[in-house]
Each structure stands twice: as structure tokens, then as C-alpha cells.
DNA sequence: GTTAGCACTCTAAGTGATTGAGTGCTAAAT
DNA sequence: ATTTAGCACTCAATCACTTAGAGTGCTAAC
């Protein structure tokens, strides 16, 4: 168990390191006004903290640096509730004051503000197809054997795909199919579209359509890829300003990871509710060994819709980041729920 | 004027430097089998070439490095027509053998192959709205005051926008407008959609719609932003492997530029036809001072649709890059023209 | 339990000295 | 009139060495 003084020293050390990115020595700590005891005492305490694994030396006669265990302890026990500056609050709220119509634009802007306020990289997982429901489906022919299929969700999200039409399937068949789909599939969540379609429509289709089998495989192909939600970024290169990323290979690794949506998608899936912090090795991607990620969720009517996250070095300003992130997640939840209400009760 | 031997030496020097990225000395050149004269002779020639500005020294006793003027001369006069390896040709042609339906996918894949073959960063400007024409327009209501507008082009490109509907405009009004639009605006190029709409539809709308003014401003807002064509990337971080980009600040500058579509858009607009090479300072973006860009256009029925480009260090493999780029541009042109034909004569 | 003091460690920065790749120039060879 | 061998010279890069400074751990005194 840590003594009061050890807690205090650990906190000072981490705060200092977060600011300077330089190993912190006993003298540096002892020079602070609010420290009454001498550097020798601090040295003793530091030795204990090191033995317990909360801090490390970079070499045998260097100052101390927080270990991942140390950061974890710091985040879990030493953070006081964050206070946002007026500037930050204004900045975020002015975003939502604009009341943009398009969900995607709201999200893109949120990512921008987040990265600007924090100088880290912000990542937002768009609303999951999970909760959004089909409003309408349209098929528009392009040539004799191709057509565009357009799905519109109640959130305003539009999804489109081009497909080839087998020669054996006629236009009137397709029209029939679309009509049936609009009848049967309206308000079905996008995520379960495929399974619902297979169940609900099989019998009806068999009755009305000649080349049932061909139409069926066509439809199956169409919904083969349940589109993963989109990943939005803000300040993709902000993290390059951090001194821990002067190594170009690390940078390459990280930026490449950004390009792989599926990977990022998994990184952002939070395991618990609320604001979560993953420190260094805790997220097992090699590219993110020196990074921490703070994630928060946003909701619509209590249902989780997506996540917003900040990516920084392990030495990141946890308190501030968590504050800003939490605040923005809240506003996002409120705004989106409002929008959703207006759609639902219409 | 350059003598035969000077040409030869310049060529050897640039070839060598492109491979090694190290300054080339007289001894290195003299050791080649096909060089009969001594290093001293070469030193004299190098001094002349330097005086003429084709090569430079990095310091007073270093080997020589091509200057931008040197590269320019090399590209304009010293390149033999490129020969593609079987591997490269196969790689590109297998791409088009798949005959993907969606233009965007073809382009995305092209970017991927380009960057893989060259290890540079590839950039592709999507088909201009320029030539694609409106096939159909749809408005789908989302709530009592919002709706999604969907434009489908004959290329299969889908464009969508969410908009607010003023309370004074009724649904039936909107339906009328959409009908009129589909009648009057079909096959109008997307780029002139706005102007055509204003001209063609003004009188008709006035006749049929009550709140003409409100509808009009609504439509105007809708088409306010003529969407610039999309920019696609392949191997965004490839360029980071080049030794000239070990400086993190240069990297940041460049990657940030990538994020700004409008800027890239201008970079890629070629000035002349065919394959164009811009070397170093020739493209006046600060972020690209150490880069060269090779661009080529692709066409549909002789009309320029977009460009594809390779971005590398000034010390780039011009011959190979130009070869691959030209070949792919050709195949792209052929494929897209075929597709277009099938749409047109349908 | 705390602290002053001291020996010790290690990095970072600076200083020569050395090496080697390269040049330019001159005088001899072709 | 070229070409080339030879030589003096330059400069970056590297290595060994020193020094300064920040930091530690330990011990003995407070």
C-alpha cells in the first residue's frame, strides 16, 4: 500500500513528466514550493515506488519515468474530476449550436474540434448501422445489365452499391422485388437486413417471381458486406509533433494502421461503459505500444451508437483529455437523441 | 551544347544517384565497364556539367548530385522509351480483367496497384463531374422538416445531401419539383446542373408552385457546392521509406497536404496533355519541394476525365514511373470508355 | 524518520585526431 | 589538343577521449 506521501510524489512526478517528456529527478521534485521534505527523502521514496513498479529509470543514473502500471494507477486513483476551461466548453458547444442536419458532418466537425483542442489525434466511429433503420430502398437502372441500389436509413445515412443484373432477370421482376422489399423491410435495422430479408421475403418472392433462384443469389451478393461503420479522423498528423514519435518507422507503422479501417474499428470497440483508458501495451497493437487511447461512447436513447476517442503518447494529458472527451460525448448524445426523436415521432 | 560524352556521363550519374541516393564521384563512374576514360577525365567533364548547372556538390569535396535542371534535362532528353516488365504488365491487366462494375472501385484498386508496383505514393483524381450526366434525382423524406436528396449519375456515381425543408413548402410541392427536375434535367452534365436548373426550370416552377421563392432558395442551397471530384490515394506512407524523408517535419507537412483535397486537386490538374513531370520547385507547394510528380490523364471518348499521378522524391525512377503510369492510364481509358459505351447505347 | 554529504554512474556535449572519398590543378603522356 | 597520372587539398564522418552535469544510492549524523 502506498503512503500519503508516496501518492503525492507519484502524482507530482507524473504531472511533471506529462508536461516535459523528460525523466524527473529528486531535485526537480524537491524544488517545488509545496514540497517540504528534502531531495534525499524523495530519493528514498522514489526507490520504493520503483520497487513497486510504478516508475522506472531509463538508465542507472537517470531520473524516473512513469511505468505503464504507474499511468494506470494515476488514471484510476489520482485524477481529480477534470475542469474544462471556458474556451473549451465554448468551442464544443458552438459546434452543436450550429445544429447541422447531416450526422456525418456533425461527426466530422467533432473530430476536428477534438484534435484542435487537444493536439492529439481524434478518432470517431460513426453511428452503428446497429440502430439505424431502413427507410427506403431504390433501384435505379444504369444500363441493360447494371443498376445502382440505394439504401436510405432513417438517420439520413445513404448507402449505395452498383450491381450487375443477370440477363435472365427482367426489369419488371426487379421492380416487383423492390416493392416487396419496401413493404416488408421498412424500419428493419440495417444490421439485420440480410437475415430478415432471407426469412421474411423467401415465400413471397417464390410466389411472384419466375427466376427465384437467380434473384435470390443476386440479393445475397448485394448484402454480402454489411458495411462496417465509418471511421473519421481529426488531426491525423498531430501525434507526429510528440517527441516520442521522432522515429520515422514508428510513424509509418502507426499511419498505416490508421488506413486499415477494420483494425481501428476493433481498437475503438470499448469493453466497458463510460470513459475508458487504454495505456500502452494494454491495446495489443504493435503500432500503438507507445500510445494511450481514451475512448467514450455516444448514445441514442440509451443505446450505444459509436465511440469517440483520443490517441496520444502514453505520456498524455489524461485528465484534460478525459474531460474534453466526456463532455463532447455527452453533447453528441444529446444532439443525436434530439434528432432521432424528431424522426421517430414524425 | 553538351558533347556526346557529357550526355553519357550525366546519364550515368543520374542513374546511379537514383539508385543509391548517394552523391556520385568520378571514381564510381570510371569503374563502370562501359566507361573507357579515366576518373580524371570524368572530373573535368563533371566540372563542366556543374558549371552548366546540371549537377551540384553537397559540399566542396563531395561527389555530384543532379540538380533540378539536371533532372529536367534527363527527363526531356535522356530517357529511352520505357519497357515494362511482364510482371508489371500482368499486374495491371489482371486488374482490368476483373471488370468491376463500380467506377470508384476500379479507381481505388488502380491506386493500390500503382503504389505497390512503384513503392511511391499514388494519387488519382476521380472522374470529373464534368462529363457524367444526371440519370435520376430522388427526394426521400426523413422527418417533417428534413429530407435526403439523391442524385444518380449515368456513371453509377451517387451523390447525396441532407436538407432542411422550410415549413412553408409542402410535400406535394416537393414531389412536383422532383418530377419536373427528372423531366427537364435528365442527361444534363452534373457540372452544369445548377445553371441549367435555374434557366430551364424557372418558368415552369413559377407556374406550378406556390411558394416559388422559398423553393428556389432551397434548391439553390442544395446545389451550392458543386462537389469537387474525389481524390484517391494508394500507399500514402510509402514515401516515408525514402531516405530524403527522414525529417519528421517534412513528413508532417506533406501528410497534412494530402488531407487537403482542394490543394491536391490543384496539384494534379495537368497543364499539358500526355504524361507530365513536375520536378521539385516546379510545383510550387512548399511541402513538395523535394518531390517530383508524374501525372497522366485518362479519358472517356477523347474527353479528359481525371488524372492519375505518382509522387516520389525528386530522385525518382522517372523512366519506370512514366512507363507504368502511361500504361495504366491507357487501360483505364479503354475500360471506362467501354463501360460508357454500354451505358450510352442502352 | 529525515537529511546532508559524498562517491559513483551514466548521458550528453564537446574536442581532437584519423580516415577516406572526393576534388582541382599541373605536368607528363598520348 | 586530349587524356591521364599524380599530388595536394578539403570536408564529412567516425572514433577515442574528456568534461560537465544531473542523477542515484548509501552512510552517518541530526
Automatic annotation (TrEMBL), chains A, B:
This is Heat-inducible transcription repressor HrcA. Signal peptide: none annotated. Residues 104-322 form the Heat-inducible transcription repressor HrcA C-terminal domain. GO terms for biological process: negative regulation of DNA-templated transcription. Negative regulator of class I heat shock genes (grpE-dnaK-dnaJ and groELS operons). Prevents heat-shock induction of these operons. NCBIfam families: hrcA. Gene3D superfamilies: 3.30.450.40, Heat-inducible transcription repressor hrca homolog, domain 3, Winged helix-like DNA-binding domain superfamily/Winged helix DNA-binding domain. One of its GO terms (molecular function) is DNA binding. Belongs to the HrcA family. Keywords: Repressor, Stress response, Transcription, Transcription regulation.
Amino acid at each position: 500500500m502506498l503512503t500519503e506521501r508516496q501518492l503525492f510524489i507519484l502524482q507530482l512526478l507524473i504531472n511533471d513528466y506529462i508536461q516535459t517528456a523528460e525523466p524527473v529527478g529528486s531535485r526537480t521534485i524537491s524544488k517545488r514550493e509545496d514540497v517540504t521534505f528534502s531531495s534525499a527523502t524523495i530519493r528514498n521514496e522514489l526507490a520504493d515506488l520503483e520497487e513497486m513498479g510504478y516508475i522506472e529509470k531509463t538508465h542507472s543514473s537517470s531520473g524516473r519515468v512513469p511505468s505503464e502500471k504507474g499511468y494506470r494507477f494515476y488514471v484510476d486513483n489520482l485524477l481529480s474530476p477534470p475542469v474544462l476551461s471556458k474556451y473549451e466548453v465554448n468551442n464544443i458547444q458552438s459546434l452543436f449550436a450550429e445544429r447541422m442536419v447531416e450526422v456525418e458532418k456533425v461527426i466530422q466537425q467533432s473530430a476536428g474540434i477534438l484534435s484542435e483542442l487537444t493536439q492529439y489525434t481524434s478518432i470517431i466511429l460513426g453511428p452503428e448501422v446497429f440502430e439505424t433503420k431502413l427507410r427506403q430502398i431504390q433501384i435505379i437502372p444504369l444500363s441493360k445489365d447494371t443498376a445502382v441500389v440505394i439504401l436510405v436509413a432513417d438517420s439520413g445515412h445513404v448507402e449505395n452499391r452498383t450491381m450487375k443484373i443477370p440477363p435472365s432477370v427482367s426489369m419488371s421482376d426487379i421492380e416487383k422485388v423492390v416493392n416487396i422489399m419496401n413493404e416488408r423491410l421498412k424500419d428493419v435495422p440495417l444490421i439485420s437486413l440480410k437475415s430478415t430479408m432471407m426469412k421474411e421475403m423467401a415465400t413471397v418472392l417464390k410466389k411472384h417471381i419466375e427466376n427465384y433462384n437467380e434473384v435470390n443469389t443476386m440479393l445475397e451478393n448485394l448484402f454480402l458486406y454489411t458495411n462496417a461503420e465509418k471511421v473519421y479522423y481529426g488531426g491525423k498528423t498531430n501525434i507526429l509533433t510528440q517527441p516520442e514519435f521522432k522515429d520515422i518507422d514508428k510513424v509509418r507503422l502507426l499511419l498505416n494502421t490508421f488506413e486499415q479501417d477494420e483494425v481501428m474499428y476493433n481498437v475503438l470497440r470499448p469493453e466497458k461503459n463510460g470513459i475508458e483508458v487504454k495505456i500502452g501495451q494494454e491495446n495489443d497493437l504493435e503500432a500503438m505500444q507507445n500510445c494511450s487511447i481514451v475512448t467514450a461512447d455516444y448514445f441514442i436513447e440509451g443505446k450505444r451508437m459509436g465511440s469517440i476517442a483520443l490517441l496520444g503518447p502514453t505520456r498524455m494529458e489524461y485528465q484534460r483529455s478525459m474531460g474534453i472527451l466526456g463532455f463532447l460525448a455527452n453533447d453528441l448524445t444529446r444532439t443525436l437523441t434530439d434528432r432521432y426523436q424528431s424522426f421517430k415521432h414524425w
